Amino acid sequence: MSSNKASVHGQWSSRLAYILAATGAAVGLGNIWKFPYIVGENGGGAFVLVYLVCILLIGIPVMMAEVMIGKRGRKSPSNAVRALIAEAKAKPFWRLTAWMGVTAGFLILSFYAVIAGWAFAYIFKAGSGEFVGKDAAQIGEMFGNFISNPHELMFWSFLILAMTGVVVAKGVQKGIEKAVGYAMPAMFILLIVIAIYAAKYGDFAQAFNFMFAPDFSKLTINGVLEALGHAFFTLSLASGVMMMYGAYLPKETSIFKSSIWIAIADTVVALIAGLAIFPIVFGNNMEAGAGPGLIFQTLPIAFGQMPMGILFGTVFFVMLVFAAFTSAIALIESSVAWLVERYSFRRWQAAMISTTVLWLLGVGTIYSFTEASWTQFTIFPEQKTFFDNLDYLTSKLLLPLGGLMIAVFVGWVVDKKVAKEEIDLNEKAFKLWHFVLSYVAPIAIIYVFLHLIGLA
Ligand code: TRP
User: In total, how many domains does the chain have?
Assistant: First the structure.
């Protein structure tokens, strides 16, 4: 078998197109909504440091492994993994590698579309001046009213999913590449604009200090697992996508170099997002540890008081929607490609089926903020709502475990020669990568897990 042939779904038109699309997948709500609030909850600098180590030591090697599986198999994750299993004459057990990822990706998108819908609605709230002159209690009440109106939220998440469905239905080059080619550059420019605004009108020094001066007394083992899980989440690993996008990779594209670029771009965006959001938070004497409401409750208070707050508040939420949109496209692509392969659907049919199922699943998240039966719902420790449990299940369990499976599968099961054919590294660098994948990443992940359940 060779990876020379293209996938039935098409192929990226260039290396840049791939890097843009994969960066679009990686950069999303995770960078701008989640990263700042988990940094805030975990006390700042020390958490950021652990997160960076996780990206470098585990994230990048696992990303390369995942892209390699896709590029070798040239199909949606489950069929790509199947092809590699056949090639290695391994047990069917390893199919779990793909299924865990696709499941995680699907569950993530179900709540992702809801939060992206919040952001969409907030464009209009910011733009119509709804934040102006309101105090913390009033903004909190506004957010509270907003998230306790299920029908409105269903409308917004529907809008996001419908847009995503239309793009994905059009295919790899005409749909995904085109949408990402506009949305990513626009998103990046808007982010820079917000960062400059924040530096000018916020407390940049305090923000910088908070993010980069490590205080290890504030770091808990749960924080370490959160950093590890977030490294997977933010790079879009272990959720099927990097396999899927890898399947569309032109033969000559370097997996190593493109992975490094994607990881750098993703990390830079997260850090800039932090440096854009925290100066605004601190400059207005607000709390960094506000949780998931940080950018929906804390930031609007600030925008409501700051010069040109209407304009920059609107710009902020437009930027957030662009970021979320390119990730949602990626999240849905593997289920669409799988439906096309498995049941010979046309792309638009597969896109319609996927978006409908996801929209219905999203209702669980929507009700998490309103209906009593969904807000009191504990499966995993300390997780209260359906959404909390979904987030815990995906980010803290499925992604790290899926990452572990990918590392072990490529490190131990896939023939080294096969890996070497796909990963363009010289002898020494290849050995190092293979070593990290076979030993360092699995041991680190297992160690964090054992610690968590109190066994290490
Ligand atoms: N990386 C995305 C973010 O930071 C979230 C995400 C996780 C994702 N897994 C994914 C996006 C798979 C696309 C595909 O927001």
Answer: 1
